[in-house]
Amino acid sequence: MAIAEHPSVCTLDCPDTCSLTVGVEAGRIVKVRGSQALPYTAGVICNKVAHHTGAFVHGPGRLHHPLQRVGPRGGDSFRRIGWDEALDIIHARTTEVIDRYGPQAVMPLNYAGPHGLLSYDSMSLRFFHRLGATQLFRRAMCGGVRSEAWVGTYGAVPGVGPEAAAEARLNILWGNNATVTNLHLVRQLGIARRHGGRLAVIDPLRTKVAEQADLHLAIRPGTDVVLGFALAVALEVRGAHDRRFIAEHVAGYAEYMEAARAWPPERAAETCGIPLAQIETLAEWMAEATPLVIAPGNGLERHRNGGSGLRAAIALPALLGKLDARSGVVLGAGNAFPRTPARLHRPDLLPPGTRTLNILDVGRHLESDTLDPPLRALFIYNHNPIVVHPDQNRLKRGLLREEIFTVGVEVAMTESMRFCDIILPAATQFEVDDIYVSYGHPWLQRAAPVIPPLGESLPNTEIFRRLAARFGFDEPCFAADDATLMDEALDPADPRLRGIRPSAVPTTEALRMTAPDGRPLVVFDTIMPATPSGKVELVSDTLAGRWGPEARLPGYRPRTAALPLALISPASDKRISSTLLGAGGAPADNPPLLMHPADAAARGLQAASRVKLWNALGAVILPLRVTDAVPPGVVASEKGTWLASSPTGQTISALVSATDRADLSEGACYNDTAVEVSAA
Fold first, then answer.
1. In contact, 595 and 677? CB cutoff 8 Å
2. Hey, which of 28, 533, 625, 671 would disulfide with 592, CB 3.0 to 4.6 Å?
3. Whole-angstrom Cα distance, residue 264 to residue 256?
4. How do residues 649-680 score in pLDDT, each as one tens digit?
């Protein structure tokens, strides 16, 4: 049988949101490659998606039918049931909870599995809003710190596009492991370097892209704000601050620089753990370079000073007056799209006064009845919380409680699903209609199914339509089909859509969001800052109002941990968070722990093949790799591995505190984990 090719879009948690060509033979996906529909990705995709999609869709862990647990939680004893029985059980058990405790005893636990606007959250939020369930603040897990820092400084506007990196005389990757998390940005960096541009990388880990850089600043985790301040001072000393631009377009300059001057390069070098010459060199390059592009990554936000580090980094182009169509910061692309979340999610259905919980606190609230009412029914979807959440062991203890009725909606039998009472099989992105914005570029894409849903699996939208019907929710919004949901997800009348309804965007081409004159939407070119002052706000009363008075100005909080080593958790080139791991993890999938030779020698571990990584929250056994790819005092191991890969049944998420928070958005501190290492 001939292979039929269909257009599609990658839905995984990545800024590139690649366009795909999917080869199908006899109802099975047999090949995935990049397509030309999205000019930015230009037919290139990562090895993860190219090589593992078939196993992800058709592998042995794929869920085909509704299941009911018949054995202990965390085990593998389930029986197949029908959809009607599954919905009846969910309705009966959830209604019991609501009758006894009220609707806020019910909570969704979801995050960022699929990134299509429909699958991510559309009919699902309508259902939970109508139910009156406890709401979840999800952005603390990832992305919230970055978003708050950007919006607090520039407003909800797009920065410079990633394609600008191709023409930059200096590109700075800051906390951005781009080779494995931002592939197409790396292509732009290559173009720039072939034309004589320089590349500087700021990252505690010597990543692959850092190996290729002209300058690698391996700073200590949490010291980004100190480096940003020192660069601001070094640029001021050089007379590189653009006084005219600052006077017209920057608010809070004097107060900001007063704080920055407490960190001259000499002091900053000692705190950051890098040579003074590196700070001076980078400042010199920044003063000289036009165009200049800074591309921050997720790593920059995941520590105690994450918000301050981001704000100090993104302030630098404003101090230099290098903000236009060719220079600036690669952030804020998601602000280019005319999204209408109120129409899609229907928050008007939510009863006034309904509480909202931070997603990082879920383990604590599940383990102990710390709330009134307590949590007694949980719906897990688009999420593998046991692998992803901090304080993994506490979350597991919470999910083991039989009195908390738990429903899972998932593509595969993840370890989190093994704790559920009822599992509903979800369709993959290749089996549904959806529409895709991106947080890394300004192109809108739509995808249609390339194969039918496997077995009895259903799209997320249909699953929650059926749940709404079983609960007796008869408002018209619960009957909306997927095309209607697409048209409610974005404003069809917005000129950025050029008269094309979202549900009619061609699946064979991407639609770029542009200004009325057809040029890209870029702050200080076709759009101005959307802050209260209309300027770049280096001092933010908005952030102070949201996150406390300390957030008004970036600041440095020194490390106070008792244990000597700082654990960072970079992304893997084999998976995206915990997705695309094949069958779900095995001992061979256990990534190594990287440790500096000096730290290994101090612990007598030079010849060790395996070590125990531990703190008060847990212990993980990992292979040891002694290398100078990490600086002294820092250890690194990849995130996203499943429990099955670990001899202790724990992964590095078990060691991450759920109570340590970043300085904005109450964000998680994955790259700020205090640990010790000993022989296994």
1. yes
2. 625
3. 14
4. 899 999 999 999 999 999 999 998 999 999 99
